[in-house]
Structures are given as structure tokens and as C-alpha cells.
Write a structure and sequence with these properties.
This protein is of the alpha/beta class. 39% of the residues lie in helices and 12% in strands. The protein has a seven-stranded mixed sheet, with helices on both faces. Helix 2 links the parallel strand 2 and strand 3. The radius of gyration is 17 Å and the shape is globular.
């Protein structure tokens, strides 16, 4: 882990982080642990299906919810501190604004690999897309109010209305920090780990052009799942993205990769 001057002069206050886990039956597989980071208004609960699926594939799977109300620096601190506490060099997986946190964490922690799912790294484009898709839920957040997300933004048409309503009821209505739009570009990852960008061309929060730009930033093309919404891990067909992500990861871990 890289320690910066600001960490000494203005340290991030300690915080008791919520970490949940799913462990494989055989923990001697030699596979690296996975650390999942949720996005804005989401908690560790959104990863339940993906954690269970990853454990079934032989990965130790963990999810951390960064401190409520913390800025980007504090969230990065929480992710890095959690990663270094795990038994082996960790794979970081972030969703939405959590992918932005992971992108910054990669500049401080030498991850084994990383996955940015529906990443909110292109702040101005994401803001404009959200305004067009949901002006009444987005405008209050611009002026210091709480962000309201809709079923149409987060999920595809195949997810049952009742299930979508249950998920929406569990989301926290938060006041987004301005830095989600005004942040500087993420630093280069320490150790040049492989980075995968995954998303949907039908996402009404992160448009396809933003996925392409983020993937190009890390030297690749996005892995796309048409018909799904922003919340890949909750939407109907959630097993397809995590299955493909783990397939990609196992290829990266193969000898000689």
C-alpha cells in the first residue's frame, strides 16, 4: 500500500467498516479474494447473489460498505484498508460510484486485478444522462438535496415490477458529493493490474460512450450485457455478468497469462 504525505498530516478518521463475506467450501483453491464495493445509495446487500456465486466458483468473496457521508478520499481509505486486511493480494470490484472509488484505490493498492462495473468515472456525461432520464430525481441533488433513482434507470424491462420496487425501497436516498462530477482523473494503477470494464449499452445512468472511454483508459473494450440496467448485480439475469467476470478473471490468473 502506498502512503501519501496527506495521510500523515491529515489522516482519515478511523471508522468501523461493515464487511460481509461468503467463503467457498474449499478455501485451498489458491484463488485471490474478491472485494466488492457498492455504489451511491447502495449497501453491501446488493452483492448477495454475486458473493454467493463467486464463493461457489472457489473465490473468497467480501463486500465493504464505505462510511456514510464520507468523501472520495475517505472511501478510498476504507477500501484500501479492507483490502490489506484480507489474506492475499485482492481483486477489487466496484459498481457505479463504487467503481470510481476502486479506480482511485488502484493508485494506492497493488490489486491482483480489478473490475469496474457500470463505472461512474465520466462525471459530467453521467450527470447529463441522469438529467435526461430522471430530471425530477436528479435536479434536487445538484442543489444539495437527495438523489432519487428510478426503476427505469436501474433495471431492465425484464425485472418484475414487485422485485424492482423491493430493491428501490432498500436504497438510501443520499446527497451526492460534488466531487463525483468534478474529480480529477483517476491515477494510474499501481503494478499495472488487468482491469475489466463491464456494463450495459442500455444503462440509463452510464451511457455506452462512457463505457467505451473508460475501457479505453485501461487498454481494452467493455464487456457488454444488452437488455440489462445499471444495477447488473440485481437485475434479471444477474448471473450472466458475474459468470463472465469470473471467466475473465480465471483467464487472467492462468499460468502464463
Amino acid at each position: 500500500m502506498i502512503i501519501r504525505f496527506q495521510d500523515w498530516t491529515d489522516p482519515v478518521p478511523p471508522f468501523e467498516r461493515e464487511v460481509v463475506s461468503r467463503l467457498p467450501e474449499d478455501e485451498s483453491t489458491g484463488k485471490p479474494p474478491l472485494l466488492f464495493v457498492p455504489g451511491l445509495g447502495h449497501g453491501s446487500w446488493v452483492w448477495t447473489s454475486w458473493l454467493t456465486h463467486a464463493a461457489g466458483r472457489g473465490f473468497r468473496a467480501y463486500a465493504v460498505t464505505p462510511r456514510p457521508g464520507g468523501d472520495l478520499r475517505a472511501h478510498v481509505h476504507d477500501v484500501v484498508q479492507t483490502a490489506v486486511s484480507l489474506p492475499r493480494q485482492t481483486v477489487l470490484i466496484g459498481h457505479g460510484a463504487g467503481a470510481l472509488t476502486v479506480a482511485y484505490a488502484l493508485g494506492r493498492y497493488p490489486a491482483r486485478a480489478a473490475v469496474l462495473a457500470a463505472p461512474v468515472l465520466d462525471g459530467w456525461t453521467t450527470l447529463w444522462t441522469a438529467l435526461r432520464a430522471n430530471p425530477f430525481g436528479t435536479l434536487p441533488a445538484i442543489f444539495g438535496g437527495r438523489l432519487g433513482l428510478t426503476r427505469r434507470q436501474l433495471f431492465g424491462d425484464r425485472l418484475a415490477v414487485e422485485q424492482a420496487g423491493e430493491y428501490l425501497g432498500r436504497l438510501e436516498r443520499v446527497r451526492p458529493r460534488r466531487e463525483l462530477v468534478t474529480h480529477r482523473p483517476a491515477p494510474d494503477p499501481v503494478g499495472a493490474p488487468p482491469v475489466l470494464v463491464a456494463g450495459s449499452p442500455d444503462d440509463r445512468i452510464v451511457p455506452r460512450a462512457s463505457l467505451d472511454r473508460t475501457a479505453a483508459r485501461y487498454g481494452g473494450a467493455p464487456l457488454l450485457f444488452p437488455g440489462m440496467g445499471h444495477d447488473l448485480m440485481l437485475d434479471e439475469g444477474w448471473s450472466e455478468p458475474i459468470g463472465a467476470i469470473l471467466d475473465w478473471l480465471e483467464k487472467q490468473l492462468a499460468p502464463g497469462a
